[in-house]
Amino acid sequence: MTGNIPAAATDSTAADSAVTVPGWVPVVLYAAALYNLAWGLFVILFPTLPFRFVGMEPPNYPALVQCLGMIVGVYGVGYALAARDPVTLWPLIFVGLLGKILGPIGFVYAASIGEFPWVAGLTILTNDLAWWLPFIAILVQVVRIQDHRQAGPGLELEQVLGETRTAKGESLLDLSRQQDLLVVCVRHSGCTYCREAVHDLAQQQSVLKSAGVRTIVVHMGSPAQGQEMLQRYGCEGIDMVSDPSRRVYQALRLRLGSLSELFGIRVFWRALLGGTVFRFGFGRIVGNALQMPGAFVIRNGQIQRAFRHRTSADRANFAELCDLRPSRAGSV
Fold it and tell me: How large is the C-alpha radius of gyration of the chain?
């Protein structure tokens, strides 16, 4: 069953990946710095050449273009500084990404009203578009590292379960001492896969109840938003926990996902070609959009079985998870 792996291995891997800056991050930032410095220098030395290349009349004030070249070069200095400490200097990366997004938008508008020929947009491919994914991926990594640092020492699961109450005011720890709990942590109500998970819960409730398992859905929205999500997909009788601070997620060692885990090829493949998005749609993000989901069987305050998603598109079989016989992937 995909994602059903030992907790210790998962936690160690997640911690190692979350607290360190991947080696490719400074490489990308230094490459961006060199590119911006080279492009800025080129524009300063040859301010009219880019216009002649695309068949445009050179401006009467080349000094203005040279000033733009200086600005581009200054961005390069910012990227070089950020490469040394991207977690602290992330605003420099964000401002750079913002410019690389707004610039093409401005060009499309200008070209659509005839102020620029469309061929002039060729430079956007290397100046802007080529850097979108790398910069977004870097910012995602920064958020994951900052989240890990802010979380501090790992939260004790039993303590968090004792402090956490369902919408009915019941302690998760007390409930786990009475019967097995299936705790399903979803990302947000706008996520098409989380909607699918709630729908799956509704379909499997009869099997779960017959096995004496009580289901708890943990979400990051308000109680009203959680109730609306459960009702929408036929889970009116299921208990829920509103956890906007993500204490339950952290105690269960559910980490923030990387760009590929949240929006990778497999995620899009199942959403589009698998038809998930057409069946369940998508909506507004509520909570941390990078949060990874998971499902856990908890007894007496301890995890018995765990399904930690490797991608946001993974699909848990809740009935199989609650069958406490050893599975292919092993139990926790």
Answer: 25
